[in-house]
Amino acid sequence: MNAQLWRRGLVASVVAATVAAGSRAAADETTRLTGEDAAHAALGGGDTAASYGVALPDLAIAHRLPSGAMNLWRMPLSQLEDGFGAPQLVKNLDYGGFSYDRSVTVAGDFADITPADDGTADHIIWHAQPDGGVLLWAVGGGGDTTPRLWQDLRTGGWSYANSRPMLGDVNADGWDDLVVQHRNYGSVANIWVFLSDGQQLGAPQLWSTTARWGADFRYLLADVSGDGAADLVMTTMATTGIGPSLTYTAALSNTVSGFNGSFPLFQGHNSAGWSFVNSRQVAGDVTGDGFADLLTIHAQPNGGVLVWLHQGYLDAGTGQPRTSPPVVWQDLRTGGWSFAGSRQYTADTNGDFIDDLVTVHRQAGNPGELIWRHVSTGAGLLAPQVIADLRSGGWNYSASREGVAHTWGMFA
Length: 412
Ligand SMILES: [Ca+2]
Ligand SMILES: [Ca+2]
Ligand SMILES: [Ca+2]
Ligand SMILES: [Ca+2]
Description:
Layout (H helix, E strand, L loop, with lengths): L2 H19 L8 E3 L5 H8 L7 E3 L2 E7 L5 E7 L11 E6 L9 E6 L13 E7 L5 E6 L8 E6 L9 E6 L8 E9 L2 E7 L10 E8 L4 E6 L8 E6 L7 E10 L5 E11 L9 E6 L8 E7 L5 E6 L1 E3 L6 E3 L3 E6 L9 E6 L8 E8 L2 E9 L10 E6 L9 E6 L2 E4 L1
Antiparallel strand pairs: 1-29, 2-29, 3-4, 3-28, 4-5, 6-7, 7-8, 8-9, 10-11, 11-12, 12-13, 14-15, 15-16, 16-17, 18-19, 19-20, 20-23, 21-22, 24-25, 25-26, 26-27
The structure holds calcium ion (4 copies).
One calcium ion binds next to loops.
C-alpha cells in the first residue's frame, strides 16, 4: 500500500473511532509508540495494523546556557497529548564539553535509544571536535537521557565545518535516518546516509556523489514521490541575472542505496519576485493527500511574510513528482510578522493527519518568543494561534534552535 492510501486508511479509521467515542480522543487516550510496539515498524511501511496510529510530534529545542553549554527540551505539539505547548527539560548538558555553538542538533524518531526510551523526541548531537572532525551523540526520551556516543567521526575525512546533518526516513521503515550533506571538493558534495535499525544508526552509506555545496544551495528531505521514503529536495539560486531565482529540484530515494534522477518541481523567476535569499522552505503534507507539499516562506518588500503552497502530486503520464503552480496559502504581510525574526516547521498539531504550519517568532523588546500554529484545513491555513508563550522563564529566541520530531502514538 502506498503512503497515500495508507494515510487515507488512517483518516478513515480515526474518523470511525472518533464517531464511536462520541468526541475527539482526549489526551489520556493516546500513548506513545516505541519500537516495542509492533505497530511502530508498520507505520512507515503502510501495514494496516498501524491504522490506529496518530502523529504526536514534539518540538525539540536546544537552548544555549550562559556557560556555552546547552539544555535540551521537548514540547508536545499535538493538542491530543498532555502537556501540549508546555516545554519539558530533557537533559542539561552543562558538562563534558558539550557546546551549543560547536554543535548541530537534529531531532527525530531515530530509535529506541535506551531500553527506557518512551518514544518522545530523540536528539542527535552532531558535535565538532578539536581536530575538525565530528562526534555523533544520541539522547533518547524517557527515564534515561544520558547521551550515548554512537559514532566517532574524528577520522575518515569527516569535517564538522563542511557537513550539514538532516533527517528523513529514506527507506520507509518508520524510523528516521540521519542524512548528511558533506562537501567533497569545490561546490560538489556527497550525501551520506546513516540508516536506523530501530536501536541505533548504522555506518554511513554514500547515497549521492552529485550533490552541491555552497551558499547558493539548500537541501531538505520530503517524500515527494508518495512511496513513504523521504526524497532529497534541493533549493537553488540562479547565478545569472536572467535565470530563475528560486528553483526546487528533487532526487528520489530508491529506498535502498541512493537518490536518483533530477526532477524539476518549481522555477520562480526573479522578475516575479521570487528570491532564494528572501525565502526559506519547509515541507509537509499540508493538504492531507499523502504527498509532501512544499511551502515557501517568503519575505515581502514592505515587511511581513507570504506563505506559498506548492502542492505535490505525481504526473499522471510519467509518474514523476510535480508541484502545482504556487498559490498564497496565508497572507502575513500585516500583524507584525517578520521573516528575519521567525523560523517555520510543519507538524500535525490536532491529530487529523494533515500537517499544520508552526512558527517560532521573536518578540520586539523581549528576548523570548511566541510559538504559533497555523492549522491547515487541507484547503488553507486558519488564523495563527499562540500555543506557547515563552516571553518569560529565560527563553531566548537568538540563543535557541529547534526542530520537529515526527513521533507517533496510538489511540488506546
Ligand atoms: Ca528509516
Ligand atoms: Ca519518496
Ligand atoms: Ca499534499
Ligand atoms: Ca493537522
